[in-house]
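Good day; I would like, with your permission, to put a structural problem before you. What I wish to show you is a protein chain and, alongside it, a tokenised description of its three-dimensional fold. I would ask you to consider whether the tokens describe a fold that such a sequence might reasonably adopt. You will find the record immediately after this paragraph:
***
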Amino acid sequence: MIFKGIPNGKKWGQDCRGFTLMELMVVVVIIAILASVGLPTFRNFISKSEIAEAMEQCGAIVRGITLFVDQHPTITPADLMTNFSTYPNLGGADDQITTLIPELGLPTEATFNYLIRVAVADNREVHLCISAWKPSNPDAILLFSSVASNKPEWNGKFYDKTYLDTTVAGVDGGYCDATGGVIDNAG
């Protein structure tokens, strides 16, 4: 369509044509195609940034618990053979990791909830498996082990396949079993 402008002596709207329905539909189709290409990329970017936050928090939890065990030589392995959490609806205040280790300082506005499963070996080596999930989607779980896994499905110490796709089953790795429980021998 060539826009000729307003002819001399005519007012806007008289003998002037707008866009045809076909032209408008072509524009809508182009916008839809661009959105269909950009939206999955945007969602992937959001998921990766959420996973990075969870990895950072899990690393802080592992460092805090390991430091706590090192600084308290009288604590027995049985004292830490338990489950801790960062969210209030699992047990009471004694189940909160920050009750045991107040200096851990986890942010209260964190995106994820964490379930921390701890086992301390007789040699005082700390075995940790941390499950992380968003309250809005409890089926999408991230697993973090205190030791790297040699399994190809794992990304070192981290397993994010069930977070990115909840239909995927979990895989044992590091000190984590497929459901997020702590195991004694790393794999």
User: Anything to note?
Assistant: The helical segments are 21-71, 77-80, 97-100, 161-164. The longest helix spans residues 21-71. Strands lie at 82-85, 113-120, 126-134, 137-145, 158-159.
